[in-house]
Design brief:
about 280 residues; alpha/beta; four-stranded antiparallel sheet; about 45% helix; elongated
Length: about 280
């Protein structure tokens, strides 16, 4: 995606540095240091082993640079690029010890994030012919990797939901239960939230939806509704609020959900359960 903005290095580097420290342990790469002479150089590529969408090239590049700035990293497939087996993603040249020591951390992040991007792209493609709905992620992310995984969602053509609990008000079923109903929950949230803060409420039935609309919710999360009920919900909303469908949505079912006319389709699995994309270092 040509308009995909890179994440600031200030966000990426601490994650990569922590991953390297975890891998290096107390004594560093004792295997490479024992076998590879200090003066040895290595030229190689990180290449795709399967079809997918790339995300995380900056993570990989920074991993090599942190081990040794003398490693040259040339990006041939940027984030958002589609790859086929054999395609080169990164081209590497430099001290062999540094390349081999950083290899696993670079690949772990690159494979993981490319998996998220690929899963997202699959949903986007399956939904596109059926409606206007954007595919959005959730807060079901790997602890410590949220900014990176949400970037990967954007690389796959999706959009981001909340980054954290302070982004917007999202009233879930347990909030409603404690508050004593949808109306008091929304009224309390509105009394507390700033004038720029949006309020979304999760509803399971059309009766709950009517309650949410009666007090002016900005968005409604239509949870686990079948496509027919979603269509009726969209008709009831009639543009008065943003509509979001959620609940066990897969590539096989997303088309029918999109056809209901909802604005957003949120999926937790694209960040918490996406399979990695197989990429490897070929020297």
């Amino acid at each position: 995606m040509s308009d995909l903005l890179p994440l600031p290095r200030l966000l990426v580097e601490p994650v990569v540095r922590a991953a390297l420290l975890e891998d290096l342990g107390r004594a560093g790469d004792i295997t490479t240091d024992a076998i590879v002479p200090p003066e040895a150089r290595l030229e190689g590529v990180i290449a795709a082993r399967q079809h997918g969408v790339i995300a995380g090239v900056d993570c990989a590049r920074i991993a090599f640079e942190l081990i040794d700035p003398a490693v040259s990293v040339a990006v041939e497939r940027p984030d958002g690029a589609r790859v086929a087996p054999g395609d080169t993603v990164l081209r590497l040249a430099g001290p062999a010890r540094a390349v081999l020591t950083a290899e696993r951390v670079a690949l772990n992040l690159l494979c993981r994030l490319s998996g998220v991007a690929t899963a997202t792209a699959g949903l986007v493609e399956a939904a596109r012919p059926h409606g206007k709905a954007a595919i959005v992620c959730t807060r079901k992310t790997t602890p410590g990797l949220r900014a990176l995984e949400k970037h990967a969602v954007r690389a796959g053509g999706g959009s981001n939901h909340r980054f954290g609990l302070d982004d917007a008000v999202l009233i879930k079923d347990n909030h409603v239960a404690v508050a004593g109903g949808i109306v008091p929950a929304i009224e309390r949230a509105r009394a507390r939230a700033g004038h720029l803060v949006k309020i979304e409420v999760e509803v399971d039935t059309l009766a709950q939806l009517e309650e949410a609309l009666s007090v002016g919710a900005d968005a409604v999360l239509l949870d686990n509704m079948d496509p027919d009920t979603l269509g009726r919900a969209v008709a009831m909303i009639d543009g008065r609020a943003l509509s979001e469908a959620s609940g066990r949505i897969t590539r096989e079912t997303v088309g029918a959900v999109a056809a209901s006319g909802v604005d957003l389709i949120s999926c937790g699995w694209i960040t918490h359960s996406a399979a990695i994309i197989d990429l490897g270092l070929d020297a």
